[in-house]
Amino acid sequence: xxxxxxxxxxxxxxxxxxxxxQDVRNPLGVGGTDLHQxxxxxxxxxxxxxxxxxxxxxxxxxxxxxxxxxxxxxxxxRNMFGPIRGPWPDMSWKGWWGDNPPYHVPTFILTxxxxxxxxxxxxxxxxxxxGGIHEALDRARDAxxxxxxxxxxxxxxxxxxxxxxxxxxxxxxxxxxxxGGGERLFEGTDMRALGYExxxxxxxxxxxxxxxxxQGRNET
Length: 220
What we know:
InterPro entries: DHFR-like_dom_sf (IPR024072), RibDG_C (IPR002734), Riboflavin_Biosynth_HTPR (IPR050765). It comes from Variovorax humicola. It is a single chain. By secondary structure, the chain is of the alpha/beta class. The longest helix is centred in the middle third of the chain and has 12 residues, at 133-144. 17% of the residues lie in helices and 27% in strands. The strands form 2 sheets. The protein has a 9-stranded mixed beta sheet, sandwiched between helices. It has a two-stranded antiparallel ribbon with strand order 2-9. The protein is globular. The termini are close together. It has helices spanning 43-50, 59-66, 133-144, 155-163, and strands spanning 4-11, 16-18, 71-77, 106-110, 118-119, 125-129, 148-153, 169-174, 183-184, 196-203, 208-214. It has 4 helices and 11 strands.
């Protein structure tokens, strides 16, 4: 059965999943890159992004690796694709990640402005969805072919899927940094009322990993 998952979503000690003043020089907002000190050195991240053989192992890498297992499609908010707002001025921007993004499966971008699909290297095809979160999930489920759908962010996108009761499992990494502003992941979201409970809690030297699961949804 296809599950809908959030994996490796990192927040600061003060609850922010992105810092303030996001722009092309600060795609995660000012200070936002500090959130991912647990992730970047891992063997999984180094392999997925740079094709490198090295990288750290252990708890952080275990959680990074589980985020790519059995994923058949991704859903991203438009900010996760690029800094452009409003209508597309042209078709030159093809994402933050260069010619070979780390997704390697069909990836659906939530947007209000239509755009033709973009086929990238490594198996990633970006599809732009203007019909909202339910249309994106329906299309992602079909593309995943019974594998899981991973919701990649940003915070507002995750919130929308949480409030709609559509996320089965959420892995949050709490990083020991303070951002002081930006976008809070759980802003206005009552996780207890939505039926989520903590099923795993593990600390490494660089992050505390928490897995939340909706009651009644067993891991398969």
